[in-house]
Amino acid sequence: MRQHKLEQGEEAVGRLNREHWSRRVTVAGLAIVAALAGCATNPVTGRRELSLISEAQEIQMGKQAAQGDLQRLGELPSQPLRDLVRTMGLRMAAQSERPQLPWEFHVLDDAAVNAFAYPGGFIFVTRGLLTHLNSEAELAEVVGHEIGHVTAKHSVVQMSQAQAAQIGLVGASIFSSTVAKYSDVLGGGAGLLFLKFGRDDELQADDLGFRYSLAQGYDVREAPKVFTMLGRLSGGGGRVPEWQSTHPDPGNRAQLAQRRVASKPDSTFRSLRINRDGFLRLLDGMVYGENPRQGYFRGTRFLHPDGKFQLDFPTGWQVANLPDAVVGMSPDKGAQLQLSYAQGTPAQAAQAFASQQGITVRQRGSAPVNGLPAEQVVFDAQTQQGVVQGQLVTVAYGGTTYALLGIMAPAAAARAPEVDAASRSFRALTDPAALNVQPARLQLVTLDQAMTGAQFAQRHATGGVTAETLYLINNIDATTALPKGMVLKRVVSG
Predict the structure, then answer these.
(1) What share of the chain is helix, strand, coil (3-state, %, to 5)?
(2) Which range (36-45, 121-130, 291-300) has the least confidence?
(3) How confident is the model at residue 155 (pLDDT cuts 50, 70, 90)?
(4) pLDDT class for 1, splitting at 50, 70, 90?
(5) H helix runs in 195-266, sequence order
(6) How far apart are CA 169 and CA 41, in angstroms?
């Protein structure tokens, strides 16, 4: 949960990475789009295909989505890395099939291993992905791939095909959006809200990324390493990297990348650049993994060192710390509690919430929380799934107003006391150890002698960092022969 103000209501709860642009299409907008229905020529394939979205609409949707992610996540502090991604991307895009788009390239300060493209030319790479790459040439494969999604108009095709489904989502109350959004995050499912590229689109984007990278002088023989890394990351029992979760098998993609390389004459690879060491130097000191300064869990207790507060979710609930909120869900998935930032005073935030369409206020008034100024709104809300019960508690602390929104389906109405107790557990964080926690960071190591991967791990797998983590982020294994003077990454515990 990042320390910045977020909008309330539909703007706040309607944003979640790749899907939120689709939910913001209005009924009127859909009617206009439908009236303009027709075919257009795909700039990559040259084929005629159904297109219900004009280029101006595509750009506007992508711009809205990009602005939301930049607000929720923020950009990586490293200007050199941001400049590298931007310069690389703009050069590729200028030589692509759609150079006229208002291309933007950003690096998000997000631990997720991810890269994605919004329609209209808005490309994002995350800090988490960068920490798992090992050369500028590998980065070029990723950036080129995402450009390929835009130039081939994959999102436009998705939006055109999903118009009917989206009409069914338009007009949903904020609670429908909230329930769907966080249910998906916590495993409850909300598939209609997530448009995913198919296998053919992904493989086409791989091929385009290969072409764009090669045209800019990058050594495309490094491309298979990206897919190998993704396969190892997902196969290690941890969270599947987002860049792979809806994509074809990384092993197959690595093989296809090798075939593309093999199809080129040897003369193709003269004077191509990899820039391994220069790229790694840009990663030195970067935060690795989740940043506990932005909040972390001990069981179901959430602690936020920068905000200096803590909150206890009910025992047994599923919990998640997202960029724009902290959320919990009951085991039966019938109740949710969301903590986010609000605008104005507690009273103003409560009034803005209570005045929304579809809200029926049953009780409202001042209700201090652990000595902090607070307001409470008990309400019923109309959603697409029917009427749900809920409670909003707005709390002022440290110059910020926090909103704790609890929602209970009719079958889970008995969980109201749990939601209320959790909301009222909001309090100051005073534990010095929790307040002073620091993130893990990457640190470069120049080998003073030749060694194997196993020997490197034996030296540097300390402080809870596993050998498997070191193998993964350096794209090596236990038997890899590492020459003297080679630069590698290790993780220094916070």
Answers:
(1) 45, 25, 35
(2) 36-45
(3) confident
(4) confident
(5) 199-215, 223-235, 242-245, 250-262
(6) 29
Judged against a pLDDT cut of 70, whether residue 32 lies above it is answered with: no
Task: Report CA 258 to chain centroid distance, whole Å.
Answer: 29
Q: Judge whether 288 and 491 are in contact, CB under 8 Å.
A: yes
The whole-number average pLDDT for the span 250-263 is 85
Q: In what order do the strands lie in the sheet with 301-304?
A: 296-298, 301-304, 309-312, 427-428
In the predicted model, what is the mean pLDDT of residues 89-115?
Answer: 96
Torsion angle (degrees, nearest 10) of CA 215, 219, 224, 226: -90
Token pair recorded at residue 86: 């931007």
How many residues are there in the chain? Answer: 494
What is the distance, to the nearest Å, from the Cα of residue 71 to the centroid of all Cα atoms in its chain? 12
The pLDDT value recorded for residue 6 is 31
- End-to-end C-alpha distance for the chain, whole angstroms: 19
Q: Residue 224 corresponds to which amino acid?
A: P
Q: Treating both helix axes as pointing N-terminal to C-terminal, what angle do 250-262 and 199-215 enclose, rounded to 10 degrees?
A: 40
CB atoms near residue 481 (< 10 Å): 10
To the nearest 10°, the Cα dihedral for 26, 7, 384, 36?
Answer: 10
pLDDT greater at residue 88 or residue 247: 88
* Cα–Cα distance for residue pair 281/487, rounded to 1 Å: 9
200 near 139, Cβ under 8 Å? no
The pTM of this model reads 0.79
**Number of Cβ within a 10 Å radius of residue 40:** 17
